[in-house]
Design goal:
With about 210 residues, the chain is of the alpha+beta class. The chain contains five helices and 14 strands. The chain has one domain. The two termini are about 30 Å apart.
């Protein structure tokens, strides 16, 4: 399936050059309720979940994708206020799972089961539903580590780069991108985005793409 990952331009260009994406670590995510979506009036449950979340944070990182690139909110929040770049990937279906959005925190029972842990990993508050998020979890030990704090997942057949969409307010030139992706095969499509004229959407631009760096 085609999924999208938004980045500020400088990070997108670096990822394109190196053919990889940086994994997000749980403690650095922007949702404070991440892995904390269940009802926790019981103290024993809170203690168990804290220990489980701490353990997961040490062992796993994730990649977050969106089902669409046309939302202005996504460009504002994750692509440097429309100055960044969105990378489109053809991701193998069994490598990702859809995030479920809920209005209320649901109860859990101890001991935590495999099903309940999976539900926690892919559940968020409904206020985030505009993201239409899909996510993939990876063991940190299986990913490339440039430093002790940053881990990366290389592009491959399971996560193949197919599109590079330049934000409406980005100054990145087409020639600069063409040089960056020169070694890719098949070569991803480059597209310039713009604000729609008659709706609150981001759409493909026919012109206004800088041709020089």
């Amino acid at each position: 399936m085609r999924l999208y990952h938004f980045l500020p331009a400088q990070y997108a260009l670096d990822d394109l050059t190196k053919g990889r994406l940086k994994l997000s670590k749980i403690d650095n995510l922007n949702d404070p309720f991440e892995l904390w979506c269940s009802e926790q009036s019981d103290r024993q449950m809170r203690t168990a979940l804290r220990a489980w979340k701490k353990d997961i944070s040490k062992k796993y990182g994730l990649l977050c994708f969106c089902a669409t690139w046309r939302s202005p909110l996504l460009w504002s929040h994750y692509a440097d206020r429309h100055k960044g770049i969105c990378l489109g990937f053809d991701v193998r279906d069994d490598c990702v799972a859809k995030v479920h959005y809920v209005e209320k925190r649901t109860p859990l029972r101890l001991p935590l089961t495999e099903d309940s842990m999976q539900r926690i990993l892919f559940t968020k508050f409904s206020g985030w539903s505009y993201e239409e998020e899909w996510r993939a979890w990876f063991r940190l030990e299986e990913c490339d580590s440039a430093t002790s704090n940053h881990y990366f997942r290389e592009f491959d057949e399971d996560m193949m780069l197919s599109e590079v969409i330049v934000g409406p307010l980005s100054t990145v030139s087409k020639s600069a991108l063409t040089k960056t992706i020169r070694g890719y095969s098949p070569r991803p499509r480059i597209m310039k985005a713009r604000l729609a004229f008659n709706s609150f959407r981001i759409v493909k631009a026919q012109r206004r793409f800088r041709t020089k760096a």
